[in-house]
Amino acid sequence: QVELVESGGGLVQAGDSLKLSCADSGRSFRSYGMGWVRQAPGKEREVVAAISWSGGSTSYADSVKGRFTISRVNVKKTVYLQMNSLKPEDTAVYHCAAKEIRHYSSSVYSRPNEYEYWGQGTQVTVSS
Known about the structure:
The protein is an all-beta fold. Helix content is 0%, strand content 48%.
């Protein structure tokens, strides 16, 4: 069972930084590949960053590559998204998402429909 709760969103100016956190109150956090998925009004969901169960593999959308960093601390059952050099186009609701993995797969998942569990989301607004 996975229960994901995001925090850390807010209103910032272009160029600022934010760090999002996603805590899992479930029992098997280590068994899940994790991702951060954003959705802006009128746009499709986008997986901006993904990380394998061990943290050894990561992937990023081209739109955030070099600015965002995903990480996880399994003993804390928490995944993070460090966002630097924020732009107005980063404005969206950011969701934490999880996909159960098998056999300690190191895969990362870059499509929203691959994820099975979702948090409620946290709003990030970047003003110009």
